[in-house]
Design a protein that fits this description.
Structural class: mainly beta
Number of strands: 26
Order of helices and strands: EEEEEEEEEHEEEEEEEEEEEEEEEEE
Shape: elongated
Length: about 400
C-alpha cells in the first residue's frame, strides 16, 4: 500500500486590477464599480495547506456593497505506478479520496469540495526480472480528477465590515488527499503522485463615498480615571436619517458594538460623548471607532483611536486639521513626557516619513507636507511602548 502525502505552496502569482460588476445600484443611482485580487497557487506533490491573503478595503476610498470569493480548483493525479514482484499473477487497484476546504472571514460554513475515485482492477503478470516495464508493471497517465468552481457572495453589512481596513484578510486553504494502492498477495510496490492548481479571486464591489456624506469630525478618545474611556466627537448634522454606533476592539482589527447614539438634530454642530467602563481586572490597549449608519443601510467609519490601560498614563494625542490640505500637526495633551517615534504610512502600508521627537507633557509636532491621499500616523512612546494610530485624509 502506498499513501500519498498531503500538500505545500510552490509558487504564487498575484494580479491586481479594477473591474466593473453588474450589481444593484448605488444610493445615488449609479452602478457600483469594483476591484479584484487574483492569485494562483500550484500545489505540488507533498503539499497540503497554505494561507492566502488579500488586501482589505480602505473605507476612506469608497463604500463596500458586496464581497465575492471565487475558488477554482484543478486537481490532478500525476502518476500511478504498480509493480508485481511476485512469481505469480496478481490483481492491482487503487482508491483516491480528496477534500478541499477554505476557511476565513465571511466563510461560515467553509467552502468545501470533494472527489472519490477508484482505479482498476488491473491484471499483472508474474515478475519478469525487469522492474518498471512489461506486463508485470502498470502505469496510469496523468488524469485531471477535479475541476470545480466554489463561490461565496456576501452582501450583509455586518459580514462586509470585516473587510474594511489597511492590512490584509487571511484565509486558510487545505487539501486532504488519501490514496491507497492494493495488489493481492506476493511482493509488490506502488507509487501515487498527485498535484493541484488553485485560483483564488476576491472581488470587492463598491459605491463612491461621494454618495454618503460623513458628518463626524474631531473624533477623540481619552481616559477617565484608570478604568474608563470617554469617546467623543462633533458632527455637523443634517436632515438626513442616520445614527452613530460606537465600537471597540482589543487588537485593532476585530470590533464589537458598545452602543448607539441617535443624531441630535440638524443644521448645526453637535457634541457627542460615550463612556466605556473597562471590566474589572482588564488591562492593555483598547481601540475605538464610530460607525455612521444611514437609513438606507449604507455606513461610514471614523478613524481608529487607542488608549492603553497598561501603564495608567493619560495618553491623549490629537491630529489636526483632519482632513488636511497637506500639512497637519500632532498636539500632545497631558501625555507622559519623553521621546516619541512618529511614523507616517500611506494606505498601502509603505513608510513615508519617520522621526524621533522629544515631547513635553503638552507639546506640538508638525507633520510634513503630504500629497493627496489617505495616511496613517502612528505615535509610539520610546520607553513605555504606548502607541496611538490616527488616520489622516489629505484632500
Amino acid at each position: 500500500m502506498k499513501t500519498s502525502n498531503p500538500y505545500v505552496i510552490c509558487a504564487v502569482i498575484t494580479f491586481l486590477f479594477s473591474v466593473s460588476f453588474v450589481k444593484a445600484q448605488c444610493p445615488d443611482g449609479t452602478t457600483p464599480g469594483g476591484t479584484a485580487f487574483d492569485t494562483t497557487i500550484h500545489f505540488p506533490t507533498g503539499v497540503n495547506s497554505t494561507q492566502v491573503k488579500f488586501p482589505k478595503f480602505d473605507p476612506q476610498t469608497a463604500m463596500l456593497t458586496c464581497v465575492r470569493l471565487i475558488v477554482t480548483i484543478t486537481g490532478i493525479v500525476d502518476t500511478v505506478a504498480m509493480q508485481n514482484y511476485s512469481a505469480s499473477a496478481q490483481t492491482a487497484s487503487f482508491i483516491y479520496n480528496r477534500k478541499d476546504s477554505m476557511a476565513g472571514p465571511g466563510l461560515t460554513p467553509p467552502l468545501t469540495n470533494s472527489f472519490d475515485g477508484n482505479y482498476g482492477p488491473y491484471n499483472l503478470t508474474p515478475y519478469d526480472g525487469v522492474p518498471g516495464a512489461g506486463s508485470d508493471f502498470m502505469a496510469i497517465p496523468k488524469d485531471t480528477v477535479l475541476q470545480q468552481v466554489m463561490v461565496r457572495t456576501l452582501t450583509d453589512s455586518t459580514s462586509i465590515s470585516e473587510f474594511y481596513g489597511s492590512d490584509s484578510v487571511a484565509y486558510n486553504y487545505t487539501i486532504n488527499v488519501t490514496t491507497s494502492a492494493m495488489i493481492t498477495g506476493g511482493s509488490s510496490s506502488s507509487l501515487v503522485l498527485t498535484s493541484a492548481m488553485v485560483n483564488f479571486r476576491l472581488e470587492y464591489c463598491s459605491c463612491p463615498i461621494i454618495v454618503l456624506p460623513f458628518h463626524l469630525k474631531d473624533f477623540n478618545v481619552k481616559k477617565s480615571g484608570t478604568a474608563a474611556s470617554i469617546i467623543e466627537w462633533k458632527a455637523a448634522d443634517t436632515k438626513e436619517s442616520y445614527y452613530y454606533q460606537v465600537e471597540v476592539s482589543r487588537d485593532g482589527a476585530s470590533f464589537n458594538t458598545l452602543g448607539h447614539l441617535n443624531k441630535k438634530g440638524q443644521d448645526q454642530v453637535y457634541h457627542y460623548s460615550f463612556l466605556h467602563k473597562i471590566e474589572e481586572g482588564e488591562k492593555g490597549k483598547y481601540f475605538y471607532r464610530v460607525k455612521q449608519w444611514h437609513i438606507n443601510g449604507t455606513y461610514r467609519y471614523s478613524d481608529i483611536k487607542m488608549v492603553d490601560f497598561s501603564h495608567g498614563s493619560n495618553h491623549n494625542i490629537q491630529l489636526f486639521p483632519n482632513p488636511s490640505s497637506g500639512t497637519a500637526g500632532l498636539k500632545f495633551i497631558s501625555v507622559k513626557p519623553g521621546k516619541y517615534a512618529v511614523y507616517v504610512m500611506n494606505a498601502q502600508g509603505q513608510m513615508m516619513q519617520y522621526k524621533m521627537v522629544q515631547v513635553a507633557a503638552v507639546d506640538y509636532v508638525p507633520v510634513s507636507v503630504l500629497k493627496k491621499g489617505v495616511y496613517y500616523i502612528k505615535v509610539v512612546h520610546a520607553d513605555t511602548a504606548e502607541s496611538e494610530i490616527m488616520q489622516l485624509l489629505v484632500q
